[in-house]
Each structure stands twice: as C-alpha cells, then as structure tokens.
Structures
1.
Amino acid sequence: MIAFLATAFGTFLLYLLLTTASGPLFLWSKEELIIGAIFALIVAAIVRKIFPAENLRLLNPKRWFLLLAYIIWPFFPAMAKANIDVAYRVITGRINPGIVKISPKLKTDAGLTMLANSITLTPGTLSVDVDEETNDLYVHWINVKEEALEKMPRDYKYICGEFPDWARRVME
Amino acid sequence: MILDIITYICIGIGCLLNLLAAIGLHRFPDVYTRLHAGTKCTTFGSILLIAAVVIQSVSVWVAEGLSSPQSVLTLHAVIALVVILLTNPTSAHAIGRAAHRSGIKPARAVVDDLEKEKP
C-alpha cells in the first residue's frame, strides 16, 4: 500500500513538472490535473507488484536531507574539482592510469549504485566493473598514486575519500 | 544587465569545458581515459549551460508573473540536468565494463586488478 501511494505520488509530481503553464489553476489546467492523476494511479497499480519492498526505507525524510547535504557539501566541490583536473590532464596529457579494486563493504544495491555514480563524477576515477558477490568495485584511476598500491584490496581513502561512509548513511 | 553578464560567463565557461572534452577524446590513448574526458567535462559544461538557460528564463518568469510560459523552460531545463547527471555515469560504467569484457586492456596501465582476478 505504501509502495502504491509513493509510486502514484512520484509519478503525479513528475507529470505536473512536465506540463506546467497549461492553465489558470496555479500553473495547470483542470484537464491536465485529472488525466495526470488517472495515469499516476494506473502506473502505480502496474508497478505495485515489482516494487522492491526493502527500498521503502528510502522514504524516510531524514535520508532525503542527508542526500541533499551530501550533494551540496562533499559532492559538488569534488565534481567541480574533477572538471578542472580533467581539463588540466587534457591540456598537459599527463596521465598514469590503472584499474584498482576497492572494498567499500556496502550491503545494498542502492548504496552501491550511489557510490559508483559518485566515483564516476568525481576527480580522476571511473567505476568499470562490480563484483556482485562481495560488492567490490573495480575503478579505473587516471593518476595512480604509489602509496595506494601497498595492500590488497586498495584503501578507498585515496580514491573516493569519505563517499562510502556517506553512501552507507544515506542509503542503508 | 548583471544577469546578462552572468549568463555570458556561464555560456563561455560551459562551451570551453565541452570543447576541452572534445579535445580530450582525441588526445587520450584508450577507451577508459577517453571516458574520463567524455563524462566529467561534459557534466560540468552542461550544468553551466543549463544554469545560463535557467537564469534567463527565471528572470522573464519573475517579470511576467506566475503563470508565464517561461516556467516550462525553467523546469524542463532542470529536469534535463537531473537526467544528464543520472545517465552520464551509468552509460560510462556500461561502456567501460563492455570494453573490459571484450578484452581491451587499459593503455599504459601501471596496475590492473580486474585483469588479475577475472581474466
């Protein structure tokens, strides 16, 4: 039931965002509101069975605020730095690449997805493959540091900083 | 006036980053390093270009009142940005994984753990 309502609400919100400025009721016309509600209910009824039940914990508003805080502070500056870093490497051509394995020890798919996407968007790293049994990530690193290669699996502090801890806090 | 200047600066830096991404696609030696150029520079370039669109359309939206058609431009640009931020790393991940599975070695690599563990 909660899954049904959450899906219907999310779908309706997306429909409203895509049909703004259609009429006089704040931003929408009456017809758009009615047809949007009908389609949202139909979609929610169809996906109710395949909605993974363990993902309901993501409805907790505390996780949304944590996600917002994560995007604003550690993530956005890191992304800006990534762009300057890659621009510098494009101009100078100074690269030292390699594929390293890290063990973030995340348990859920949602957390691992968030970490892999964060790694790809932040400086010098690109997630290439995942070990589905142990949830280890294989990361292509454009500028391999010697001190990170001492032990196996590699210390993720050098590669993605505090991101695994954030992914655990937000998604698990 | 001041908004126009901010818009021009955003468009300029955004175009410069996208240009650097295109140059990087030619300069880097293999598929993985090219993906670095293709994902990171284009993300921030798109953010700045969409920021320019949003600044202009919000200024018109505020001037024309709440039910102005400019709201479409603002909200759709923001949705496009969110979709770029979600799909860009995902597609890079898919291309990198497919390249490694079809046997392409990273050029000039100092270490390759994936090759050692899953040859």
Note: The mean pLDDT of chain B is 87.
2.
Amino acid sequence: MTSSAEGIGARVTRREDKRFVTGKGRYTDDMTVPGMAHAAFVRSPHAHAKVTSLDASAARAMPGVEAVLTSEELVADGVGNLICGWMIHSKDGSPMKMGAWRALEGDTVRHVGQAVAVVVADTPARARDAADAVVVEYEPLDAVVDALDALKPGAPQLHPEAEGNLIYDWEIGDQATTDAAFASAAHVTRMEIRNNRLVPNAMEPRAALASYDEAEEHYTLWTTSQNPHVARLVLSAFYNIAPEHKLRVIAPDVGGGFGSKIFIYPEEMVCLWASKKTGLPVKWAADRTEAFLTDAHGRDHHSEAELALDADNRITGFRVKTVANLGAYMSLFSSSVPTYLYATLLSGQYAIPAIHANVKAVYTNTTPVDAYRGAGRPEATYLVERVMETAAREVGMDPAEFRRKNFVRSFPHQTPVIMCYDAGDYDASLDAALQAIDYAGFAARKAEAASRGKLRGIGFSCYIEACGIAPSQAVGSLGAGVGLWESAEVRVNPVGTIEVLTGSHSHGQGHETTFAQLVSDRFGVGLDTVSIVHGDTDKVQFGMGTYGSRSGAVGMSAIVKALDKVEAKAKKLAAHLMEAAEGDITLEGGTFKVAGTDKELPFFQVALAAYTAHNMPEGMEPGLKEGAFYDPTNFTFPAGTYICEVEIDPDTGKTEIVDFVAADDFGTIINPMIVEGQVHGGLTQGIGQALLENAAYDEDGQLLSGSYMDYCMPRADDVPSYRLMTTVTTCPGNPLGMKGCGEAGAIGSPPAVINAITDAIGSNDLVMPATPAAVWQAIRQGRTAEAAE
Amino acid sequence: MADVTMTVNGKTVSKTVEDRTLLVQFLREGAGLTGTHVGCDTSQCGACVVHVDGKAVKSCTMLAAQAAGSEVTTIEGLASGGELHPVQAAFREHHGLQCGFCTPGMIMAAVDMINRLGGPLDEATIRAELEGNICRCTGYHNIVKAIAAASAEMAGVRTAAE
C-alpha cells in the first residue's frame, strides 16, 4: 500500500462506518452493568420559584424505588457547585458575578426543567412514575426571559451575587479612536441585530451511566462527552466527586455534540453521586424534552452595530454594543463565548482601523447558554455580514465589490481586536464563489423568476473564524481556567501495527479515518494496520477534547509531533541494523532504505527489533512508543465566501433556497469527503437558524418550542443540495497547515440567507428565523413604507 | 404484565414485559438489539425506525404487545451473510452518516422507501420521503446521494433479475 492512496488528501471511506450502518455502534445508553438502576429527575415546572417543601414519602414507597435524593443530601455530602471555567473581568476591573449553581436545587429554581431531586429505581418507567409522585410545593416568583428586560430597573433578580442581573460589562478595542472615526465619517450604517436562541439538538440525547466500586473506592462514568478528560478534571477538582485516579470517564460512541456535550451538567454529577449513595450503578438517559430544557442553548444576542465609511467607501470604524443572554446559570465556558470567541472576530475579512465593542452578559430565567457550533463566531459573522451588505446597499455599491474594496490583503494582519490573521486569500474565495454562482447571470435569473411571480434574491457572506483553540498562555492571560493544547501517543506494536492514542474525541468527525490517514501518509503503512484510540481516561493519559474545530489543527499536530519522535528513533535503529549512517536512512512506502544502496528493512522488522532488543544501538531503550503534547502558536483562520440565492413566494412568504455556493479555505485537507460532510452539516444548521429554528419562551419562562413538534429542525426537504469548493492558503502555524472545517458552515451561512431574502423582498427589516410569516410581514411592511413615501 | 413473542431478524424472541412496554424498549432491552435508537419522545426523529411485517414503523410509537406475532427486522438484521445491504453500502460509500445515531432509522426508512417506490428515485422524491427522519450532522446532502445511488443499484438488480 502506498501512502498516496490512503494518505493526506485521499477521499477514503470511513473505517468507523461499518459498525454504524449495521447497528453495532456503542453509545452510552447502549451500555449495561449488572444490577443497574435508573435515574429520573424531578424538575421544576416554574421558571422562577421558591421551593417551599418537598415530600418524597409516597415516591419512596413505590415499587422498585431505591432512593429519592434531594439537594439537602447533595450539599451535606460536599458535592461542589457547578462552575464557569473562564474568568471575564468587566471594564471597571471587577470579576464576573457568578451565581451559585447546585446540581440539585433546594431553595430557588431559576429555569423550567431545573432538577430539584432525583429518583433511583429498578426500571426507567418506575423511576419516572416515582418522580411524578414526588410532591414539590413552589412559591412562584416573577420571571424574566429577555436579556434587555433583565437589565431594566425593577426586573426580577435571579442571583444575589449579580446585581441587576448583570454578569459582566466588558469591552474590547479602543473607544476613543473608534468614536473619532465616526466623528469624521462620510457615511454611517446603523443596525439593530438580533441573533436568535437555538437548541443544539445532537440526535443522541445526553446520557450517563455511573458505577461505584466500594472496595476500590473507584468510579466509572460512561457519558456523552466531547472531552472526557476535561469532564474528569472538573468532576474531580471542583465537584469533589473523587480524585482523578479514582474516576474513569469513558465517552464511547457519541451521537453528535455541536458544543452541547462539552459541558459538565448536573445530571452526570448526580448519577456519580447517586451510584455511591445507593450502592448501585445508576443510568440516566435524557428524553428529548429534557434535552430541550437542560442542554446548553446557543446564541441569543441583542446588538446595535454601527459602521463608519469614508468618502471612498472604505471602512474607518466599527462600533458594537451587545447584550448576551447567558440564561439562569453560567455554564462551563459560557463567559468566553460572547467575549473572546465573539468580539475578537468583529473585524471580519476587512481592514478596519478602529473597532470598539461592549458586551453585557445577563442572567435570565431560561436554560443556560454556552458554546453551540461556532460559538460566538456565528454571532460576529452575522453582525458583520449583515452590516456589510446593508452598507453596500446604502452607498449604492455592489455588495461583492464593497467587500472586496475592504478586504485584508497583507498577512500577518493585526486587527484592533486581538486577533492576528496569519494567512488568507479572500479575493480567491470570493472569485471562486462568484464564478460558481454565475453572478453576471443573476439579473436574468431574477427576471425569469419574476415572470413566474417569484421574488429572487442573492446574498453574500464573507466569513472568517478563529479555530484551533488555542495557545495556552494566550487564553490563560484572557481568563481561561485550562490550557488548550492537545496530546497524542503513538504506540508501534512489535508486529508493526500502530495504535494512536489521542486526546481528541470523535463524535461524528471521522477521526478513526483521518488520523489513520496521517499515519499512513507519514509511514507508508496501510490504514488497516493503524487504530485510533480515544475517549477513555484509562487509555489516554490526558486531552482537551474536541470542539472549536480543533481536532485537526491541534489534535493532529500532537500526533505529528509523536510521529516525529517515533520516526527518529526507528531511523536510528534501522541505521544500526543496516550498518548505515542515520542521515542516509529514508522511510518510503513502509520501508526503511539506505539512500544510494539496495539495503532496506520493512517497517515491521524495525518495530520487531525494537521489542526483541537483541541488537540495539548503545544506550537506546527497547520499545517504540512516543508521546507528545502540542500547544498551538496561534489561532487558525478559516475563511470563505458563501453565496445564497433564494426565491420567495410573495403570497405566502415561503423562502426556497434555490442555489447555495460555498467557497472555503480550510488550509490543508486530509479527507475531502469528510470535510465536505462537515460543511454540509454546518450549512444546514446555519440555514436552520436563518429560516426555521428558534428557542421561543413565553413571558413566564416556559419554552414554547420544547419538542420536535414545535422547534423546527431542518428536514431533508427544507434544504438544497450544496455546491462546495475550496481555495487553499495553508496555515503557517501548524505542521500540517490545517485550519479546521467543523464550524464554518454554521458560521457563514445565516447572513448569506438573510441577505438574499432581504435582497429579494426589498426590505431590510427582518429577524431570524425568517419564517414564511415573518417574510410575508416584511414584504407587507416594505410595501406600506413605499406607499407612504 | 404481558407475554410477548415475535420474530426478530428471523429469531423467535419471547419476553414477559410490562403492558406499557414500547416496541423499541422490547428490542433494545429485551432482545439486546441496541442498534435501534431513541432520539425523541414525539415520534418525529425516526431514529427508531424498524420494519414490522415488511413496513417501516417508528418503534417508539408502537407497543411491544401490538407487534406480538409479527416479523420484525431491525438494522442488525438487514445485512445478510456478511454482505452489507445495498443501502448500508451506499451510506458508507457516499458518506451518508457522521455520528451514526440517526443512521439505523435512516437506513431502515430508505429501504422501505425503495421497496415501496422502486427506483431509481429522484432527489425531490427522496427529500420528501425523508420527512419523518431527522439528521443533525450531514445536512442530508450525502444521505440523499446515498439513497439515490442505492435505489438505482437496486432497480438495476431487479431489472437484471426480471
């Protein structure tokens, strides 16, 4: 097998697929342990209420019930409060105001679905029955669900720690220079922009199976996690469940994450605690309703944005004020999302000399909000690209040419908001997308659509995002409680097969294939001789997990470093065995060769020699196994242009996406098939946000869209087939030149869709999701405004 | 409690279960066939689709007792003799899956679709027919491609056999 057929850049079908297409995947809820009991949570029906009494006597007497456990016992056992692991300071220097969050709440519930007690019983149904029989009395309090309302004087207060529900009042950039740019601007575009709240909705609901071994004082937790080592660290260091060496966390096959499975939630903690408390293994699997109510939501921003232009239509300043709804509690990385993952991307693809952003993060009586596919970057991109499109319309420039005029063209480029773009070619992706969509032919297509009574529009989005998080020292200086490196270990077995242990976690990304492609490419060995091991803290020493499109740029870089070490040792040994100079050894097609001679040794023979250790260079240890930690030197900056064409039926307001072109620059691509799949999925989530999805609350804090009957997930007939292409500038910051592709689709697509719709209907007053009703209203309002003029 | 017997993937399975036991619970917990998944509680997502007497059924919406005496096929019973079913093979070939959680239901729904409608199927038909199955990973693009390819292949096989 040669490296080219299965190596970097090859469109290899996935090695993990056989188990998934035959029903042999092993997800957390598929696991069983002898004697296993089942947990069901008693949840608050109120968004904000005092818990005045809890009577579990009837529930405890029901058949099969092992225990009903409450907040009081949890607190008495010293289980810690949930924490947010990223410290943000307000502009006045004060630290963020974090309210206490208990895994079971006994005093004041702050969102619908918050757990107040847990029932452990012999079957899931009996646990559920008993949970229904726990009598909890509540004294309802006024609730607040909208972040702007929560900041108003007299609004209901959630946490005593956070006066006025304000968590932080943060800023970035230089206010004085930005204000000066506006003072001398030839044109200013002003917009109010809402980024709608979303529910991540990985298809596998969260689940946990916790088993406590009393003799060993050791816990095992199978759980739906994107980062099992981080889970163990937090459960150990902050929640006092067990010291790390007494806690094994296994994240087996995981059915999608999109960010929602990064965080440590109350339910997983409670299962661990309950397994010790009851002496039984305890399993909990969320139903979809629980997922809607308790999985961390995404987005939910109110923003005001202003763009200043000079007389030549060059951008001179960008000023943003954002209010971010963080829900009822601060989830694990919630504080970083509307700050360092958001405002640092407000320069977009553009050379903007002055930027200032102010972000207020606010408590409300809603489900906690944290990272969801893109995490901050979709909010930034939506803001920048809606404003860019609107500004182009206002000054009468072609939206593509207005963007082009303002593109960053020399690299590295330091923005006014921390980020230093290392490489890119934004003209290349714009050109590729314009050509693919046949921009010149749009007017004719619009006219043809009009002849059928349809409104046709075209919308652009030139996105940039930051991936590969991140240099540990840099994020540490910005408040992160962890480092964001990654680890890898490469074990060459005596027969020459290779196991790669990685701290990254695959929950749909195909690491078992792409990571093996890297090894195949490097050593010229067949994919079938390589296995990828991940997701188990007993097997992999440590890792930071998978989120932020970091597994390629960071995780694979760690593997490269470990492969470097293995190769160096193997070459040294091969040189010794073939009695040649180390510098003359090459590794090609799975064989070590001595340059300029016909001497060669297959890879497996060198591996075997390392383990027999009969003939080693002096001082060399036996074995062939190396580990490495890789800490990134910078973020990576995937970027691209998306162009959407829509047709709208003016009588119904229904939008049809008739064409969607995506031109992305992801740097080096390991497997184009997998990368395309990531983009397809991301685009569909972004289109879902733009057209369909919305976590809607009523004023009392009830989630109105709390099931698949109400929350409109994109289905197959809601979205088109996509036309994808890539342009490449490699990332100079990591050994493979990778940038990351997991989130781009969700980041770049919403503004392209909304820009296309507003272009079609000639009215810019439209919020997401652009449902038929919303679009129909916007058309009507646009006509009314026109008539009034 | 009810004594329920059915044939699952060609084998007889008998269990004594609570009356309220759903078919999906019977399959997952009773028969140990965990390939059939539960992704929602409102019969919307389709992760639990199996075939009951040759028809696609959401097994979260049927009581085990209702399936008593039936022939049930789950994702585990689709391949025969170590050979993947053409739809399984097409999902793999066309990257029609990522996390794999919706995949069993998608494949069982696709097999039913092709059985009912024949092939080759066009994109619009496939997208409309997938109304009852939700995927969050793939954006459906490659699922549609996989089903189109499988339907063409199966139609070709049928034509050749006739």
Note: Chain B has five helices and five strands.
